Amino acid sequence: MVLEQVILTITPGSEPDFEAAIGQAKEVISQAAGFRSLRLQRGIERPSAFLLLIEWETIEDHVVGFRGSDLYKRWRELIGPYFAADPQVEHFESPSVVK
């Protein structure tokens, strides 16, 4: 399992619209091969900051399969207009000692 961590900075004032859009976008990404789950958290100190956590079966499911698909294009159409900055994306996996 791979955990994708995304820090999103949303244009101030558009947070409610972004939250509605991410609900629609979840329906899109859930159709991608290897998708396992999606979780969204909103910043307390910075309410325009969001932490998006997405679980994938493999990193290839995300960076090759999803990113190269029409689903990704639709995903970005739904949530991209709310970005105040480029998303910061990193991937994580469990160390072998805790698997």
Structure description:
The structure is a single chain. By secondary structure, the chain is α+β, with helices and mostly antiparallel strands. It has one domain (2-93): Alpha-Beta Plaits (2-Layer Sandwich), CATH 3.30.70.100. It has three helices and four strands. A hairpin with a 6-residue loop joins strand 2 and strand 3 (49-56). Helix 1 runs antiparallel to helix 3 (70-79). The mean pLDDT is 96.
What keyword list fits this structure?
alpha+beta; 99 residues; four-stranded antiparallel sheet; Alpha-Beta Plaits
Brief digest:
With 99 residues, the protein is α+β, with helices and mostly antiparallel strands.
CA distance, first residue to last residue = 10 Å
Largest sheet: 4 strands, antiparallel
Unreliable sequence segments: none
Helix-strand string:
EHEEHHE
Number of domains: 1
Oligomer: single chain
Beta-strand level of the residues, as a percent range? 25-35%
- Tally of DSSP β-strands: 4
Radius of gyration over all CA atoms, rounded: 14 Å
Q: Please report the first level of CATH classification, the CATH class.
A: Alpha Beta
Structural class: alpha+beta
| CATH-derived topology | Alpha-Beta Plaits
Widest sheet: strand order? 2-3-1-4
User: What global shape is seen?
Assistant: globular
Overall average residue pLDDT: 96
CATH architectural arrangement: 2-Layer Sandwich
Query: Number of DSSP helices?
Result: 3
Summarize the amount of helix as a percent range: 25-40%
